[in-house]
Amino acid sequence: MGYRRAAIRRGTAGSLVAGVVLFAAVVAFAQDASKPQQPPTEQPGLLGRAGRWIEEQVEKFGSHVRGAGSGIENLSHEAGRAAQSTVEDAKDAATAVTKIPAMRTVTGHEQCNTAPNGAPDCVAAAIAICKNNGFASGKSVDMTATETCPPQVYAAGRNSGPDCHTETFVSRALCQ
Q1: Cβ atoms of 138 and 126 closer than 8 Å
Q2: Which of 20, 94, 98, 141: disulfide with 172, CB 3.0–4.6 Å?
Q3: pLDDT in tens, 52-66
Q4: Mind spelling out the 3-state secondary structure of the chain?
Q5: Pairing of strands 138-148, 165-175
Q6: Whole-angstrom distance, CA of residue 49 vs CA of residue 47
Q7: Is a pLDDT exceeding 90 seen at residue 100?
Q8: Separation CA 113–CA 119 (nearest Å)
């Protein structure tokens, strides 16, 4: 008896499933009948879908390559402009350097005159050092000062005294 009930249950379940499938088919047919007829679309198989996917990937890759190409073109254009600007800047710098008068630092040992106020006046001494080295003029860059005393002061064992005075010398000048 148990086998019979199980078979009936299976039969009832099978009928129920068949009824649901039949009802879904009728509903689908009714919906298709209400829509205007369209030409049947091709349902691609596995190979068709794979082919379409490959085509899409090729299109995407092509757009990336075109984008990279335009980026490289822009980069090369900018690099060319930068190189041209660098060349022009170098030319301008070279022109500016040639316009700087020929200046040079020279060494020497020329005594400075004493100004009316007692301070050293080293303008004439710097010009004299520059003229001795073939330049027209110059300015003092470095000076040396010494205290000079008569021999009697040193003979008495002293290093300074009322007869001693400071002498200033130009030791380097910037000449042009």
Answers
A1: yes
A2: 141
A3: 888 888 888 877 777
A4: CHHHHHHHHHHHHHHHHHHHHHHHHHHHHHHHHHCCCCCCCCCCCHHHHHHHHHHHHHHHHHHHHHHHHHHHHHHHHHHHHHHHHHHHHHHHHHHHHHHCCCCEEEEEEEECEECCCCCEECHHHHHHHHHHCCCCCEEEEEEEEEEECCHHHHHCCCCCCCCCEEEEEEEEEEEC
A5: antiparallel
A6: 5
A7: no
A8: 9
Indicate if the pLDDT at residue 122 is higher than 60: yes
Contact indicator for 164, 145 with CB cutoff of 8 Å: no
d(CA 154, CA 63): 97
Q: 166 with 145: CB under 8 angstroms?
A: yes
| pTM summary value | 0.41
Joined together, the tokens standing for residue 150 give: 């008569």
Amino acid at 55: E
CA 48 to chain centre: 50
